[in-house]
Write a structure and sequence with these properties.
Transcription Regulator spoIIAA, 4 helices, five-stranded mixed β-sheet, alpha/beta, single chain
């Protein structure tokens, strides 16, 4: 008996939404890759990958997410990932895969314009600059 999996795609208020329900793994990754590819070819609409119902993500699933993020960046378009619940969120945390993606915890947050949100990656880059320029206080 296979695992329950469903992937759907729709347009909501001008945003292309791909929802994953179930496990994102080696068996289901091709379907998700296909949906994200179709979404990426739909003009310049923002793409939201909703993982709120995703119960598991393996390394193949992570590679699909990273490839979609890179493709969106190359196209100059917005890809927003709605973080999954535990235990799938642990994979994000351990691999730090979300550091290079725009991620939100609530699908309702996606309506904010990109300029209103700072990606985790941008925050890390700013923090690295501050740490690089940081000098310890002089002791007397």
């Amino acid at each position: 008996m296979g695992t329950r999996f469903e992937a759907t795609e729709k347009v909501v208020t001008g945003v292309r939404v791909v929802e994953i329900n179930g496990e994102l793994d080696i068996a289901t990754s091709p379907r998700v890759r296909e949906l994200l590819s179709v979404a990426a070819s739909d003009g310049d609409r923002p793409i939201v990958l909703d993982l709120t119902q995703c119960s598991f993500i393996d390394s193949t699933g992570l590679s699909v997410l990273l490839a979609a993020s890179e493709r969106a960046r190359e196209q100059g378009r917005r890809l927003v990932v709605v973080r999954p619940p535990l235990p799938a969120l642990r994979v994000f945390t351990l691999t730090r895969v979300d550091a290079g993606m725009e991620c939100v915890d609530d699908p309702g947050d996606v309506t904010a314009s990109h300029s209103d949100r700072e990606t985790t990656y941008a925050r890390v880059v700013k923090l690295r600059r501050r740490l690089r320029d940081w000098k310890p206080a002089q002791r007397s």
